[in-house]
Amino acid sequence: MSIQKERQSERQTKVLGRICSFTASNDDLFSVLVPLSFLLLVVLALLGKAAEMAVVAGFSAVCMAFLRLENFSEFSGVGFSAKLRDVAKKVEAMAVRETEVDADDVSDAQFGKIATIQVSAQEREALQAIEDSPFTFRTATGLAQNLELSVSAVRQLMAGLEEKGLASQIVTSRRSIAWNITAQGRNYLLSMAK
């Protein structure tokens, strides 16, 4: 039991050291902010300071939310709202789409690794349909029309491609799902063309 307490004490000391030297991660700051905020709220409650409690609780909540932004897909409060996770996926998808793949830049070892991924003929057609499209993101309905499959069959195909890391999905502004090809997916198609 004392070894466990020693390790916890060492970890706390390291976290506080990183915070003081301004090298702390968001996780370090979060692990300090939560108990500190709770302790401050308890003290203010015991003193009967309701207004101060509200201010501290609001400030703490906003700080904790900003420390964990990568975990939110949507954030709103006090006139501020943002969709975060999907924005990063959209930017990455557009960067992949707008970047020309140079076969000379991709080594044979990478092609060999990508070529070992088991992809069915229909999955390959779905990837090619996304790559050849003028759109960066394709819906199940659009892909179903291109591939002459049902929407549910396309969703199953795309789920398989996502698991293999060849495609990625986002939720559109209309709350529907759309897919894009990943850099690995483009490299896979390029390796199949070699």
TrEMBL record:
Protein's name according to its UniProt entry: Uncharacterized protein
Swiss-Prot/TrEMBL keywords: Membrane, Transmembrane, Transmembrane helix
Transmembrane regions listed in the UniProt entry: 29-47
Origin superkingdom: Bacteria
Keyword Membrane among UniProt keywords: yes
